[in-house]
Amino acid sequence: MKPIQVGLLGIGTVGSGVFSVLKRNQEEIKRRAGRGIEIGMVADLDAERAQAIVGPGIRVVRDARDVVANPDIDIVIELIGGYGIARQLVMEAIEQGKHVVTANKALLAVHGTEIFAAAHRKGVMVAFEAAVAGGIPIIKALREGLTANRIEWIAGIINGTTNFILSEMRDKGLDFASALKDAQRLGYAEADPTFDIEGVDAAHKATLMSAIAFGIPVQFDKAYVEGITKLAPQDIKYAEQLGYRIKLFGITKRTAKGIELRVHPALVPSKRLIANVEGAMNAVVVQGDAVGTTLYYGKGAGSEPTASAVIADLVDITRLHTADAAHRVPHLAFQPDQMSSEPVLPMSEVVTSYYLRLRVADQAGVLAKVTGLLAESGISIDAMLQREAGEGEKHTDLILLTHDVREGTMNEVIAAMQALPTVVAPITRIRKEELA
């Protein structure tokens, strides 16, 4: 059978990895797919560099629309990124009846509903394994491997840059700014790391996992997003003393009131496997009613790990290229006419537990006032740590771990604590997740 023809839009880090792995493992891949997979055309603004990568036998163009319009191309791989031209090209490829493979989590998290609807109408596939957690096959697991389960919750370390920074802060006692500089020097963080350190990248990925897990539309605009820029080294040390580590988590959970969708730093017990995921690695925990707890771990970025996921999507599409569109796995795991209208909860309605660090005057009665405010709101204390004030010090740190409480209630109590004259600095609040 004639090889299926692929058009590659963008041959940067991931694109060059796709070309390299596809070429190196072409015979193995052909045996699995049932026919050859060939990159027949490449678009990149730096055409000379692109031609040097792929060699003389493959046509390279500067205008990606030339690839999309080519009737010989069956599958378009979009590796340009962003929301702008990438969206236009994906929609045009779909309109031309071409299947699409993309690693663009931002595009799908924001415009996924429109893109998947267009693909469904045209009977083509949009595959996006590489958009979440790089080489870890978490999309495949959620869409197919765990399809018998009612998914209860997902919690993931899904941004390698922030996990590297937090590992550096814990291992070396660095502050955030110093750890970020290390990450940039070593190539783990971009020159402008905003999307990573502010949690946006993780929120894009969590949005996609939430849609697949619970059969809801992609709703990035309803995700709660908080990054790691305000974390202090002392909080990481106190967490360790209490038996916890701090990680940036993407969390989505099914509750009686609706779906939680949130990204923020959280304390997790040190004994949990995911708490021990260090450096730039990714990990995702999925809780299903039948299977129980499953953990997926691996490289969340990089040229060949991400290429692995892209090529897995190519193989899937090649196998199903001639199949009846109605019998393919739905884009978001659930049949399009069976999507749920369950609401995504505002953060004020989320119930979780908390770590609080208060900088307080070292005098009698302070603890009683603080715990009194908690008691008045029905919030019970799980653990407490009070640092002894040094000689001559007038202030000290008071650390509290609470049991579960609604976030809106906690916000009110923190405001009341902050108003106490004996609380002398802004209160640090970090959510706590037992993941039990």
Q: What structural class is derived from the secondary structure elements?
A: alpha/beta
| Number of H/I helices | 15
What do the pLDDT scores average to? 96
- The stretches of 5 or more residues where confidence is low (pLDDT under 50) are none
Strand content: 15-25%
**So what's the CATH class of the largest domain?**
Alpha Beta
Largest sheet: 11 strands, mixed
Could you say how many structural domains there are in total? 3
Can you characterise this structure?
- This protein has 436 residues and is of the alpha/beta class.
- It folds into 3 domains: 4-135 and 303-338, Rossmann fold, CATH 3.40.50.720; 138-299, Dihydrodipicolinate Reductase, domain 2, CATH 3.30.360; 350-432, 2-Layer Sandwich (Alpha-Beta Plaits).
- 37% of the residues lie in helices and 24% in strands.
- Strands 7, 8, 9, 10, 11, 12, 13, 14, 15, 16 and 17 form an 11-stranded mixed beta sheet that branches.
- A hairpin with a 4-residue loop joins strand 9 (244-254) and strand 10.
- The longest helix has 18 residues, at 105-122.
